[in-house]
Amino acid sequence: MKKLRILLLLIVLMPFSCEVNKSYRVTYLVTDCSSGFDIWYRNENTDLIHKRIIPASEEDEWKYNFVVEEGDIVFISAIYDDINSSLKAKILIDNKVYKEAFSKHDTANFVIVSGTVPYHDE
Amino acid sequence: MKLVTLVFLLFPLLALAQETGSLTGHVVDGQSHQPLAGVEITLETHPAGTVSDIWGTFKLDRIPPGSYVLHLRHLGYNEITRKIQIQPGRDRVMTLEMFPAVHILRGVEVRDTLIRDGAAEHLPYLKQIELKKQVRQSGFSDVGEYLRTLPNIAGIRKGGCNIDPVIRGFKYSQLLVVIDDGMTIEGGCPNRMDPAVSHIEPEDIESLEVIKGPYAMRYGSSLGGVINIRTIRPRPFETFTADATVYLGYTGNPAGRKEHLAVEGGNRTLFFRFSANDKKNEDYKAGNGETVEAKSHKYNLTGQLGLKVARQHELLLSYDRSYGRGILFPTLPMDEREDNTSLTSLDYTWHILASPWKTLKVKLYQTNVDHLMDNKNRSISDTMVAVTHVLSATTGLRAESHWQSGNQDVYFGVDYRNISKDGQRTKSAIMQPTLPVYVEQIWNNAVIQNAGIFAEYRGRHKHVEWIVSARLDDNKATSDDIEIRKMDKVIYSCRNNTSDFLNPGVSMGLYHDLSRYFSAGIMIGRGVRSPDMIERFITLLPVGYDNFDYLGNPQLKPEKNNEIDLTVRFNHPLAGAAEFNLFCSYVTGFITGVIVPPAEQKPLSDGVLGVKRFQNIEPVLFRGMEFSMKTPAESLWEFTLTAAYTRATISKMTRLVLDDQSQITGEEEIRHDPLAEVPPFESTLSFSYKLFGSRLIPIAAIRVTAPQNYVSQAFYEKKTPGFVVADLRVSYMFKSMLQIYGGVNNIFNVLYYEHLNRRIIGSSLNLYEPGRNFYINLIVTI
Q1: Between B215 and which of B68, B88, B276, B507 could a Cys-Cys bridge form, CB atoms 3.0 to 4.6 Å apart?
Q2: CATH code: domain of residue B40
Q3: How close is the nearest chain B Cα to the Cα of A10, in Å?
């Protein structure tokens, strides 16, 4: 019985661990655009979604929130219509800016912000 | 009258029976204390003889009183000789311990006396090694790291763990790695980040067998050597017993910990062993203080259940599930994100005691590797995220029978192995507006089947021992049609993917005791192996030592190794033991990458120099030596010296000529080019001193490695400087319940790298070995 108690104590003391993937809240944010723009983003189901957005003013912002796990790809690309406009795209992870890009007077090239959610122990 | 006559006739016999005695014994392995079955027990000057049963017990009846010399013989163990006295009418009861023998040269089991204290130390041609002790004393984190400490065994390091062994310059599938005499594992990674040895935790290993050369035929087709990993197995107990062992280890560099818990027990009919390991290491620091990204986390659970069906029949069911998480390999294009491996086996043993047929062993097994890799820790993932998922499965069967008569043994049997592999690589171009995703097939449902038949005959007469071994394999391979696309354009396709080979292998050896202290041996063998999965079916991936995409070749022919080993040994009870061995190996049909003209094949990977396709090339000559010496373990001081060297040359190779900017300017033919990834000369010297009745033993070791200047031009191999490193360790047995081992590796914090360490991916930076490392291991047994 004593032996059994010691064994149980040792098992409890041993910090065997299981890996649990950590979740993060991701926010796609598009601001500073006064003209209509097209966006493509990758959502929580890893689908690529396309949307057409018409902002009322430059102060308007487009936002999309979802939850991902570490290592997941986050992606947003946008292109706007009016050469006199601009566009800022950001990806936030747990409300901190992970990556961002800005474009002004350029309707030929996409604004692309992308990456993978960093692993928590790195 | 008849009754009276009968009484008179029986009376002398009854009187004789009363005057005889008997001997009852129990034979156990001196290291593991497990019962030893099949031990041959004989008495000099008396015809009585028997063999031990599966409980290790034996009995000799009706022995006339007197003095006898008792002999115990068992293959793989040192012979025991005891003087005993048999008393009339009494049963003499004895418990006898036999210790495993070190086996030298022949690559097969022949008794030997270099063993001391029942433990094989750093000697060449090791047949059996007490690994548990080594693991506890050294703080090794994986099997490959341990193997690297043996003479003429090196390892290819790609990260913090999972070191891939190289024996005498032979590597990858030139070496046969088996678990528990027969099980094999096909790893998932094309770059071998998970070699077979990495799927077994050192804490679960009872012993390792390393057989250099192509001589062992019983485990499978082998070309350059066999590594047989024997795991700790449950054993029956006379009465119900449950024991537990807890192992806790901590290291400073890398900062890491490991825990091991094992519970074993049972009774005479049902017995079990359950164990769990958890091991986590952070990045480590090299001798210059720089951090090397080499995190790793591995854990596993093992369950084994044994059943004694009848007195002579035994079943053992084993299941192991292991996990790898976030294992970083800074020298490879990808890291291991997840690895889930399962090993399942069912062993049946029939101890046939009453005839020359000693045992029949049958093993069924299945191994599955689910391997996920990605490049998310590489800078290239800012533009292209690549994730590779590979599933591999190996199903096998092995049956072996052992026949013994006098001094002759015959083993024969069959084995079968089916290896299947499939996988995909998904590439997401995350800097393109619509996030295009490309899916590439990695293995295309590749399958290799190998069926073999083998036999081995051993004999001994007075001072001569001999062995003849042979096997025949039928090896078949196939895969789906191969088609590689780059941006939706087909850049490579292959439709003729089947092959079928019949591979015969044979070896023979002779060993002779020249005098009381000197002996010599010769071994000649020819081993044949068919190409592996990578060599046959890899599809434009940078899997080689150099910066090329590699292309498999389904039409490759088998590789053949013709080898000879010569050994001289000295063994003196007071002076110690020494051995010197020379080997020469001539490999025909050598398989390696050969440049494919750019016009014929463009690479798939970015930044590589071009494409190489696996081909059978000109012969390669390996030659080298191993030397070892050791003082007798009986003395308080102990001194061990080992040295080893291998040199390997390819007859003819072609390489691309590059200018200073690594631009290709032409091709050139190179004659007698050194083979890449062959370790330089090295020697290890160690001292130990026994204190307090061997309870406290400090050990100091110095390893000297020469520069490697004999490097391959065809593979753009770089020279490696020599180095000297020193280790210090102390073992202390507080009581049988608690043992403490600790030490410091690389005492002087030397900045160095092994010749076989790969370079950091995308650079010419070396992957340095860890700097100074303090460690401590505690073992509690209850």
Answers
A1: B507
A2: 2.60.40.10
A3: 8
